[in-house]
Structure formats: C-alpha cells, structure tokens
Amino acid sequence: MPNHNSTPVAGNERLQQTTLWTALITPFLPDESIDFTTLSQLAKEQESAGNGILLLGSTGEALAMTHNEQQDVIRHICSMSLSVPLMVGVGGFQLQQQMLWLDFLKDYPIDALLVPVPLYAKPGAASQLKWFNSLLDASSWPCMIYNVPSRTGVALDDQVLGLLAEHPNTWAVKEASGSVEAFGSYYTAAPSLQFFCGDDGLLVDFIAAGACGLVSVAANAWPEATARYVQQSLDFDTDPNQSEPDFKTLWQQAGSSLFCAANPIPVKALMKRQGRLNSAELRPPLYMEELQEITPLLDADTAINQWVESI
Questions:
Q1: Is 59 flagged in the annotation as binding?
Q2: What is the pLDDT of residue 4?
Q3: Between β-strands 143-147 and 112-116, what pairing exists: parallel, antiparallel or unpaired?
Q4: Residues 6+ apart with CB under 8 A from 51
Q5: What pLDDT was estimated at residue 197?
Q6: pTM of the predicted protein model
Q7: Site feature Part of a proton relay during catalysis: at which residues (predicted)?
Q8: Which residues form the catalytic set?
Q9: Domain layout of the chain by residue ranges
C-alpha cells in the first residue's frame, strides 16, 4: 500500500493538515460583476467545514476575469482572515504576466500556489521544465503542480515532474488526467511529493494509488459532505480487509453529474437551486444554455444528502 506521508511543508501546519481543497467558484451578479457578499458566505462555508480554499482556478473562471477583478478577489478573501489555508491559481501562458501576478501576491497572506501546465501553446518537455522552473524560482510559496490535459491541451511530462520534485518550492501535484494509470506514472516519477486527486469521482482509486487528498469541484455544492467523503476514503485505504466502499459509486455518479456540461456550469446551476447563489451567472465563453438537463444534479444532491444522514 502506498505511503502517503511525504516531507512536510516546513512552517505551515495548515498546509500539512489539509486533505481537501475546494476549487471555489466565483459568484457573479446578473450584470456579471462579482457578488462579493455571496463570495464571503461561500468562503465561510468552506471554513466551517475545515476545507482549504483554492481561489482563481478554472472552476473560479479566473481567465474570464480582468486582472483588476482577480486582484479584488484576493484582497477580499484575504481581508476575512480565514482559519483555513488559501491557495491561488497561476494560469495562462504569458510568463511575464504570471511574474507580475506573483509580485502582487507577495503582499497577501496566502499559503500556496496552483501552477498548471501552460495553456494553448502545447509545450513539450524542455519548454515545460523551463516554464515551471521560472515560476518556482520566483515563488514565495509552496507550489502544487497541476496536470489537466483536457484544459491545457497537453499533459505534464512525467520526467519533467521528476525533475521539478527536486525544487524546494515544489510541494504537491494535482492530477486531473482522469486516468489511474497516468496517476501511477506521475507518482512513480515523484514519490516525494504530495499527490491530490483532481477528479471527485476517482478519489478512492487515486488514494489506493498514492493520493493523500482531493482538490474538489463537488465541495462547492457539498462542503461538509465532501470533507466526510475524503476522510472516509482515507480511512478506507488504511484497512486492506474491507471490500469496495459503498459510497464509491455514489460519489462517482455525483462527480459525473457536475461535468454534464463545462465546469462550472453544472455546479453553479445546482447551487442556485440549493438557494446558495442568488444568480448562477457565468462569464463568457460559458453560458447556462449549455446545460440541457438539471435532473442528474438534483438526483445527486438528494443522494448525497441521504448519504450524510445515514453515516
């Protein structure tokens, strides 16, 4: 069975202890401006559940926002002095812009960065290595390397990850290829790093392969239930005599429902029906008309709530 205890991140106990990160949505008003009142409420829900918060990832529609808006989100959340750790996305493919972003962040009490493979350009191994090293060298925080080929257009090179693992600012990996086999290749290449599952429905399988936690879309809709799911998945992995957990299929179906259209369209639609968003507004190029059927989301919501009541 894989060893989930990697070298701790010195001086940051909150980071060491966090097994669930919520890739927080950005709520918008009908005029597409940021709904800061709701953003505060959502952040407090995550704090109450004990979940780390990832700001300005793809679920947060960061690249559809202006630079000033991104800065406003950081200022707003950091002013709340939350008791849970904060991670901030570093996305895009223009290196100088990312350097300016890191320079801005230096003035704020964040705990980590999420650094994906560059978008659009499809860099090969040599280019990936130079890109990541440039950002890691400039970072003042531990960094989670993010593999999500469905969005970036190219997968993280596993040999590059092995080299990046030697950098003192490389802390973790978010693996969202959707493949347990691919996860295994990355884990083998860099076993000293902490690995986080990037697909809600695959958590049990990824933990069995070496993951120590989850970066979640589902936790937006179900903050406390997802925290229980992560803990039960980790607990299950410590007992090799158990059969497959009964909650595995439930969460696979729930996770699939959240990707019946481009993320974060479904989760925003569900949170609106839950009464937790005043508006399910999105930023172009995403539009709610893409969501053809909400029934799977409502069924998942009912099933998750029933599961929580049963445990």
A1: yes
A2: 37
A3: parallel
A4: 18, 20, 21, 22, 84, 216, 219, 223, 226, 227
A5: 98
A6: 0.94
A7: 58, 120
A8: 146, 174
A9: 13-241
